[in-house]
C-alpha cells in the first residue's frame, strides 16, 4: 500500500498546483465531507493522497499560497506580505506598464494629447487601475519635479493631461495625484528650506518646488482643485519670513493663477495682501529685496484688477487657453465620469494618514481617539466657554441640529463655511440660517447679504435654496398659493411651513426685503423668483415687503456697497446709472405674467417717499419709471418676436 502511495505521488507531482488550488477553495467554503464529496469518484485512498501532498516540507515557505508561478492567484490579504518578501520588486506586468506609460509621456505634445489620452485610457483597461494610477502619477511627478527650470508650457501640457484623466477616469485619480503632488512639494520645500538655513550656495538649489508650484497652479486653472488649496499654500509660504525662495514661489503662483484667484475669492486675496503688508511694514523684517518689491507690486495690481501683473505671461496664458478648449471638447470623444472640483485643504491632505481621505467615498476614518482627546485637552478653556455661550444662543434660536449650530457661528462663517464637510442636502441649511439670523436682527446687518452673495457665486444650488426660502417666507406673510401646486400641497400637509418658530415682525420683513434687494441688484438672484406671486391680490404685509424691496433694489443698483438704512446720511450719485437697473429688470420682461404684475404694483401700489430725503425720493421715482418703461419695452419686443 505504501508503494502504491509513492507511485501515485510521483505521478501526480505535475498536477499538484491544481490540486492545491482546489483544496484551498474547499477549505475556504468549509463544506462537510459527508455533505459534499466532490465532482469525481474519489475513494478514501485518494483523499488521503491529496491530504498528504499538501503538507509542506520543513524547508518550505511559511506562506504556501504565495507562489512565483506565472498567473497564480494570490489572496488580497497575502499580497502585502508578498511585496515585502520579494523586496518591493516590480512584477513583469508593472514593468511592462511602466515602459508603455513612459513611452506615451515621452511623445506627449499639444498636437497628439488626444491620442495619448486614448492610449492611457487603454492602459486602464488592460492593467490594474491602481497600478496604472500609481505609475502614471509617479512618472508625471518625476518629469515635472526636475532640478532645472522647466518651461511653463511644458508643465501646462502635463497639467492638462492630469485634468483630462480626472474627467475620464474619475475624481479618485485627482485625489491620488494631488496627494502625491503636495507630498512631493512639501518634501522638496523642506530640503530647500534646510539648504537655505545652512547657507548653501545657490548652485545646489534645484527648481523642484518652482516646477511643482506651477503644476499645482495650472491644475487650479483647469478646475481640478479649488482655490482653497492654493490659498492654503500661499498662507503656508507667508507663515515664516519672506525669504527669497518663498517670494520666488509666491510670484510664480500669482503670475500663473492670480487673476483666477481674485475672481474666485477676492476676500481671501485681500487677506493675503493684508498679511504681506503687515510683514513688510514690520521694522524687524529688514530691507526688502527687488523680488519682494515686485511681489508687492504684483499683489497690488491683482487687488486693483490691473492687467500689468500678467503681461509677461502671454505664452503661458495662450497655452492654458488652448488646453482649456481641449478639455471643454473632451466629452465629444470620451465618457466624462467626473465634473467635480476637488475642494480639499492643505491640512486635510497633510493629515490624511491620521484622518483618512474624506473627499473619497470609503477612504475616511475617525482617527486615533486618544490623539484627538489629547488635542482637545490642549485647547484653552476660554474659547470653550465662548463656544458654550454660542451654542446656548443657537439652541435658544431653534438651531436644533449640529449642522445648524455650526453655521450659526456667523462671526467666523464667511471664512469657515467652505471648509465645513457638508453634504449637498446639509449645504441648504447655510442659506436658511443666514436668512434667519438676518431676520431677527433689530437693525439690518448687510453682512448676511454679502455672505449669501459669495455663496451664490460658488454654487447654483444656493440660488435655488434662496428661491425656496423666499417662497416659504411669502407663504408666512399670507401668500398661500406661492410656490406651485406641489409645493403648496406639501406645505399644507405639514404642521408649519418653515422650521424656525419665529413670529413675522415688521423688522423681519424689512431685513429680508433688503437682503433680496441686494442679491437681485448684484446678480446673485433675479426677479424671476417672484414669478408665482399674484401682484393683484397681495396681503398687507406682502405689500410692505415689495415696497421696501423696490426702494432698496433701485438704490443698490446705484451703489457699490449695501445700504444699512435709507436715511439722510446716504450719499447717492447725482447721475443715475440707467443701464444697471435696466439689466436687472429685463430678466423679468421675458415672463409676461410677472412683467404685468410688476407694472401693476409699481403703478397702483408704489412705495411712499414722503419721509425720505430729497435725493432718495428722486432716485426712487426715477427707478420706478425705469422699471415701468423697461418692462413695457420688453413685453412689446417679446410680442413682436412671437
Provide a descriptive summary of the structure in words.
30% of the residues are buried. It is elongated and about 85 Å long. The termini are far apart. The longest helix has 28 residues, at 614-641. It has 3 domains: 2-85, no CATH class; 92-255 and 314-344, Serine Threonine Protein Phosphatase 5, Tetratricopeptide repeat; 404-641, no CATH class. The protein has 30 helices and no strands. The model is unreliable at 1-70, 375-387, 405-411 and 485-503 (pLDDT under 50). Helix 5 runs antiparallel to helix 6 (113-126), helix 7 runs parallel beside helix 9 and helix 11 (227-237) runs antiparallel to helix 12 (244-264). The chain has helices spanning 2-11, 16-29, 44-54, 76-85, 92-106, 113-126, 129-144, 152-169, 171-197, 208-221, 227-237, 244-264, 266-281, 290-303, 314-328, 346-350, 352-355, 369-378, 381-396, 402-408, 413-416, 424-440, 447-458, 460-476, 485-493, 506-521, 540-558, 578-589, 592-604, 614-641. 65% of the residues lie in helices and 0% in strands. It is an all-alpha fold.
